[in-house]
Write a structure and sequence with these properties.
152 residues; Immunoglobulin-like
């Protein structure tokens, strides 16, 4: 029988090393010298979004804690809406002082394709004090059928 390319991929789960790394949320795990806090980010990061429908809108919602309104842009191109921005590091901590580093700092970009053509003039966006970006994209209006009456 041929070996699966995924054979052994989960074999470390349950091992003592895995159990030591699986600390409960909110606790720090001291990393060894051979184990950096995180890979140094390269390129552009990506943010999480929720997209849902409400009445005659598609709504895109993105939590953007630590992002300033002046560092946000929204671009529209046909069916694609792109959110770009930058999350600045509040203070510089030397890399070797981190126990755990999961937060992304730097430029980010997220593009979503919607099922309709987007009219940029009709898109509305708000950014509240809880740092939640909410973008309202109107759905395309349905073509109305007009009956032609016979007459003179």
């Amino acid at each position: 029988m041929a070996s699966s390319p995924f054979h052994g991929i989960f074999s470390s789960f349950g091992s003592p090393e895995w159990d030591q790394r699986a600390a409960p949320t909110g606790t720090a795990v001291k990393l060894t010298a051979e184990e950096p806090a995180s890979p140094r980010p390269t390129g552009i990061g990506q943010i999480a979004v929720d997209i849902y429908e409400q009445d005659s809108y598609y709504i895109i919602r993105a939590p953007l804690a630590g992002v300033k309104l002046s560092d946000l842009d929204i671009e529209v191109d046909e069916k694609v809406l792109t959110i770009r921005g930058k999350r600045s590091v509040p203070d510089v901590i030397p890399h070797d002082q981190y126990y755990l580093q999961e937060c992304f700092w730097g430029e980010f970009s997220r593009s979503v394709t919607l099922p309709c053509t987007i009219d940029p003039k009709r898109v509305k966006a708000t950014f509240n004090r809880d740092c939640i970006l909410k973008v309202l994209v109107p759905k395309e209006e349905k073509v109305k059928v007009v009956r032609i009456s016979e007459g003179g």
